[in-house]
UniProtKB/TrEMBL annotation:
<feature type="domain" description="AMP-dependent synthetase/ligase">
    <location>
        <begin position="23"/>
        <end position="409"/>
    </location>
</feature>
<keyword id="KW-0067">ATP-binding</keyword>
<keyword id="KW-0436">Ligase</keyword>
<dbReference type="InterPro" id="IPR020845">
    <property type="entry name" value="AMP-binding_CS"/>
</dbReference>
<comment type="similarity">
    <text>Belongs to the ATP-dependent AMP-binding enzyme family.</text>
</comment>
<protein>
    <recommendedName>
        <fullName>Acetyl-coenzyme A synthetase</fullName>
        <ecNumber>6.2.1.1</ecNumber>
    </recommendedName>
</protein>
<keyword id="KW-0547">Nucleotide-binding</keyword>
<dbReference type="InterPro" id="IPR045851">
    <property type="entry name" value="AMP-bd_C_sf"/>
</dbReference>
<dbReference type="InterPro" id="IPR000873">
    <property type="entry name" value="AMP-dep_synth/lig_dom"/>
</dbReference>
<dbReference type="Pfam" id="PF00501">
    <property type="entry name" value="AMP-binding"/>
</dbReference>
<feature type="domain" description="AMP-binding enzyme C-terminal">
    <location>
        <begin position="464"/>
        <end position="542"/>
    </location>
</feature>
<dbReference type="GO" id="GO:0019427">
    <property type="term" value="P:acetyl-CoA biosynthetic process from acetate"/>
</dbReference>
<dbReference type="InterPro" id="IPR011904">
    <property type="entry name" value="Ac_CoA_lig"/>
</dbReference>
<dbReference type="GO" id="GO:0003987">
    <property type="term" value="F:acetate-CoA ligase activity"/>
</dbReference>
<dbReference type="InterPro" id="IPR042099">
    <property type="entry name" value="ANL_N_sf"/>
</dbReference>
<dbReference type="GO" id="GO:0005524">
    <property type="term" value="F:ATP binding"/>
</dbReference>
<dbReference type="InterPro" id="IPR025110">
    <property type="entry name" value="AMP-bd_C"/>
</dbReference>
Length: 585
């Protein structure tokens, strides 16, 4: 790994990402369906061919050109999961503009910070979004953000829900259906996505054109065993890297039919995913363990009444999947015949780093198994920084050599890339995650390095304890954090949610504690177990462990930025529950 972070693939090469994702398929297979839009309302869906996709992208690109967007300009996108969002991304790529998609659920404050840091010249939004039956006032949020974004010159608005906004009818209908492609250098930036940083300031993770596109397409093809005619459904939002790589760029570069899902897994009922799979004949389905666990709670009957015979590959992303959820996914959803790909990667990596390959690698529930082609993972001793040789070792997960999809910089702050990813362990890319390489050479992600808890000199991984807790028949989800302990240095505080049908009694906490003692040992015995209705999660479904640590430490005077929380009431409920627990001491 070069110490200055310099990475280059296809040196002196030229391409246009939009040409690879749209034009060539519009010419070769114009009538093939490119996008299937599944609206929030299950009765609303739309199919867009590659021919139509090409026309819409060109019209959009011409509109951007008319507004002064040029090569290397940055365009902000704050949109719901609708086809126009994909048109906007591809139109930017066609012109050589850099797009920065912001998840359409962030507050005006968070949106402002991202648009300002990205130096956006033009922004794109919609009147409103809708998700799970709830209206999201996107234009109002954008208006508030733009009050403090002096660099933004123009704002484009799509009318998605028919909300009353300032509008000039017919103004854009005359846009020409063809727009010339802008030749791009291999290392020109395609997009940036903002991800949370330990300092609190989001990092603009910037990805290249050629290397990123190759890696997104290649991982999509081999990890999901894609074949022409398959219908690929990744239900992530395009506001996150999973949506970029496995809703848009990977599938479209391979000429696939890709699903754009606007809703949530439980709207209008817990059969939403399964109804969609049957309706569209989906071949590959990709979702998060959080969603799987949420659906497990509702029982098997919602799944079993649907024809899921079209499914061939089931994927998980975003966090390690606990073995119980893995087995339910395999047995109930996949009917014991679909391959499961438990993928490990990051916004920074562009695509999968560790993953099974369907039919080629034997799975172990909860393990991300082995590296993708060309990826060289190493497990380092956290103190010495030296690689741990052989198998049956645990330490810090790093990557030895660059790969095509690797981030190129932190936008406007390359020094931050060096400090966060390359300098902690010289010569390696530092993932920030711990890992175990077992006796068979399989990799198990043990959680963020800062999620390792030192109890009486023993380093315990939060994920390991969480896996033990969810073996309880009533446990739906668990999150474990450390808190200061006067004797042990750190104690273990466990937050647990239970299945709806499970009746909690006075012995439930002791049952949970005994499972941890049995599975891991007395050293891992939890100090506190708090049974709660819900865990604090971001809008992308990730647990905000920083808040859990503060609550466990009884340090709730200043919680910091909570703008990314999906439901802030959850935090208030947790604080109240924890106070009752502390008062019993």
């Amino acid at each position: 790994m070069h110490p200055d972070g310099h990475v280059s693939w296809f040196l002196n090469g030229k391409l246009n990402v939009c040409e690879n994702c749209v034009d060539r398929w519009a010419e070769e297979t114009p009538d093939r369906i490119a996008l299937i839009w599944e609206g929030d309302d299950p009765s609303h869906s739309k199919r867009i061919t590659y021919r139509d996709l090409h026309t819409q992208v060109c019209k959009f690109a011409n509109m951007l050109k008319r507004l002064g967007v040029r090569k290397h300009d940055t365009v902000g996108i704050y949109m719901p999961m609708i086809p126009e969002t994909v048109y906007a991304m591809l139109a930017c790529a066609r012109l050589g503009a850099i797009h920065s998609v912001v998840f359409a659920g962030f507050s005006s404050h968070s949106l402002r910070d991202r648009l300002d840091d990205a130096h956006c010249k033009v922004v794109i939004t919609a009147d409103q979004g809708v998700r799970g039956g709830k209206v999201i006032p996107l234009k109002s949020v954008m208006d508030e953000a733009l009050k403090e974004c002096p660099l933004v010159e123009k704002c484009i608005v799509f009318k998605h829900q028919g909300h009353d906004i300032d509008w000039t009818e017919g103004r854009d209908e005359a846009m020409r259906p063809y727009c010339p492609l802008e030749p791009m250098d291999n290392e020109d930036l395609l997009f940036m996505l903002y991800t949370s940083g330990s300092t609190g300031k989001p990092k603009g993770i910037a990805h290249s054109s050629a290397g990123y596109l190759l890696y997104a397409a290649m991982t999509h093809k081999y990890v999901f065993d894609y074949h022409p005619g398959d219908v690929h459904a990744c239900v992530a939002d395009v506001g996150w890297i999973t949506g970029h790589s496995y809703v848009v760029y990977g599938p479209l570069c391979n000429g696939a039919t890709t699903v754009l899902f606007e809703s949530v897994p439980t709207y209008p009922d817990p059969a939403r995913y399964w109804h969609m799979i049957e309706k569209h004949g989906i071949s590959q389905f990709y979702t998060a363990p959080t969603a799987i666990r949420a659906l497990m709670v509702h029982g098997d009957e919602w799944v079993s009444k649907h024809d899921l015979s079209s499914l061939r590959v089931l994927g998980t992303v975003g966090e390690p999947i606990n073995p119980e959820a893995w087995r339910w996914y395999y047995e109930v959803v996949g009917r014991k015949r679909c391959d499961i790909v438990d993928t490990y990667w990051q916004t920074e990596t562009g695509g999968h780093l560790l993953t099974p390959l369907p039919g080629a690698i034997r799975c172990k529930p909860g393990s991300a198994t082995r590296p993708f082609f060309g990826v060289e993972p190493v497990v380092l001793d956290s103190k010495t920084g030296q690689p741990l040789e052989g198998d049956d070792v645990s330490g810090v997960l790093c990557i030895k050599k660059p790969w095509p999809g690797m981030m190129r910089t932190v936008y406007g702050d390359h020094e931050r890339l060096l400090n966060v990813y390359l300098r902690p362990y010289k010569g390696f890319y530092h993932t920030g995650d711990g890992a175990v390489r077992d006796k068979d050479g399989y990799y198990w992600i043990t959680g963020r390095v800062d999620d390792t808890i030192n109890v009486s000199g023993h380093r315990l991984g939060s994920a390991e304890i969480e896996h033990a807790l969810v073996q309880h028949p009533g446990c739906a989800e668990a999150a474990v954090v450390g808190f200061p302990h006067s004797v042990k240095g750190a104690g273990l505080f466990c937050y647990v949610t239970m299945n709806n049908e499970y009746e909690v009694n006075e012995g439930t906490v002791n049952e949970l504690r005994d499972i941890v003692r049995k599975e891991i040992g007395p050293i891992a015995t939890p100090d506190h177990i708090l049974i709660v209705p819900a865990l604090p999660k971001t809008r992308s479904g990730k647990i905000m462990r920083r808040l859990l640590r503060k609550i466990a430490s009884n340090d709730t005077g200043s919680l910091g930025d909570v703008s990314t929380l999906a439901d802030q009431q959850v935090v208030s409920d947790l604080i109240n529950a924890a106070q009752k627990l502390f008062n019993k001491r």
